[in-house]
C-alpha cells in the first residue's frame, strides 16, 4: 500500500486544523520556558499554507511540500520558521516529482528533514527540542521496516516513539533555544517544539491508512 | 488583558502605519514584507546598517532608523524574529554598493533567519557582514545554552555603527566598531512585573506582588532567579555586581552607563537606579563619560530595568557624540 498525493494534502490540512486547535496549549507550554509565541506562529504559518493549498492541488508531492516549506519560512518567524521551513523543504526535495510514496520513501524523507533541522539548529538528541520527538520517530520507522511491519504499523510505531520522545523532554534541561536561558528551571516542562513535532507524526499515522 | 489595541492580529501592522504617518520626514515604511527604511535610502557609497527582531521592544529597532543610526529595521510579530524575506528586501533597499551590516541579537530564531537572509543576499551579489550581540551576563553558562542573549548593548551598537557608516567608512571598519561594542558591552536586567503578549492575552508569567525576577530577558522569559523584592539600591548592586565581575572593566576605564526601562517603569525610578549605578562605577574607579537613561529596549509593559555598561575609547566616544536623527534617539541635528 502506498501513500498517495491526496493523502499528503489531507495530512497537511489535518495538521493545520490540529495546530489551530492546540494553538493556546502550545502558547501555554511556550510561556513556561520560552516566549509564548510558538502556537501563534505555527497557526499563522499553517493558515497561510491552507490558503495556498488550492494552487498546488494537482502538483507532485515534492512541489506541495516545498510550497509548505517556503510559506512557513516567510510567515512563521522565530526559530520555528527556519526549522519547520527546513523540515518541509527537505521533505519536498526528497519527494520531487513523486505522486506516491512507499514506507521507504517516507523514511528517507524524514531522515533528510531531521538532518536539515540539525544542520540549521545545531541541536542534538536530549537538548530539549523538536529533535527529541523526531529522531526516535525515525528510528522507530526504520526498526518497523526492518521487522517487516506494514505501513500502518510502522507509522503507528513512529507516532508512539515521537510521543514518548516528547514526554521525555519534560525532565530535561534545555540546551538550545530560548528555554536554555532558564538553566535548571527549564526542567519539569514539556518542550513546545517537540510537542508540535509529535502532532505532525500523530496526524501522519491517523491520516495515512 | 487591558491594552490600547484594536485586535491582537493588527498590532504590528497598525503600529507601523502610525510610525509612517508620524515620522515621514525620517522614515518610510514598506509593507509585505514589513520593514522600516530611511527616507533617503539607499545612499550611494555608504554601508547599510540593518537590524531587526520581534516587535514589542519599541523604540528598538524601528525607532532607531534615520540619519546616523540604522538604515532599515525589520519588525517581526510580537517577540518573534522577523523572516528572511523581510531582511532580504531591507538589505536590497539600503544597499548603496558599499555592503550591508546586519546587527543581530543572539536568539536562536534571529540568528537562523538572519543567516538565511544573508545567504540569499550574497546570492544576489550584495556583500553582507553580521555581528551577533550577546551581552547579557545573566546567562552564565554559554557552553550548554544558546549563549548569552543580546540586550542593551544592541542600542549602543546601532548608534555607533550608524555613525561610522554615516562617515562613509568601509564595511570592515564598521564591523570593527560593532566588534568593539560586542567585546566591551555587558548588561543585566530585572523585572518587577510580567508583560502580556497581545495574542497570548494573559501575563507570560505570574510574579507575586512582593517578588521580583533577576536576570530577566526582554521577552518575558523568566529570569534565572526569583526573590523577594528589595530596595532600588540593593537591586542596582545585584545588577552591577555580575556586570563588573565580567571582563573587561577595570579601574581607570571610561564607560557609557545605560539605564534602560523595560516599558512599565517611570523615568523617576530609572534615575534612582542610575544614581546608584553611577556611584558604584565611581567606587570602582570607573569613569562614566557618557550615559543614556530611558526606555529604549523594552518588553511591552513590563516593569523593571536593565543596566548596560559599555567601555569606551576615544573612537567610540566620538561616534557616540556624532549627530543622530531618528524617532527614538536624536541629538546634534
Alpha-beta classification of chain B: alpha/beta
Overall residue-averaged pLDDT value of chain B:
95
Unreliable residue stretches of chain B: none
For the record, what CATH class of chain A applies?
Mainly Alpha
Basic shape of chain A: globular
- Estimate percent helicity of chain A: 55-70%
N-to-C CA distance of chain B: 40 Å
Biggest sheet architecture of chain B: 6 strands, mixed
What is the CATH homology-level superfamily of the largest domain in chain B?
Dihydroxyacetone kinase, domain 1
Measured by DSSP, the beta-strand proportion of chain B falls in 15-25%
Short description:
Chain A is mainly alpha-helical and 209 residues long. Chain A has helices spanning 5-33, 38-52, 61-75, 80-94, 103-121, 131-146, 151-167, 192-207; strands spanning 3-4, 100-101. A two-stranded antiparallel ribbon of chain A has the order 1-2.
Describe this structure in words.
The complex is a heterodimer of chains A (209) and B (333). Chain A has one domain (3-207): Alpha Horseshoe (Serine Threonine Protein Phosphatase 5, Tetratricopeptide repeat), CATH 1.25.40.340. Chain A is 68% helix and 2% strand. Chain A contains 8 helices and 2 strands; from the N terminus they run βααααβαααα. Chain A has a two-stranded antiparallel sheet. Chain B is α/β, with parallel strands linked by helices and 333 residues long. Classes of the chains: A mainly alpha (209), B alpha/beta (333). Chains A and B meet through helix 1, helix 2, helix 3 and helix 4 of A and strand 4 and helix 3 of B.
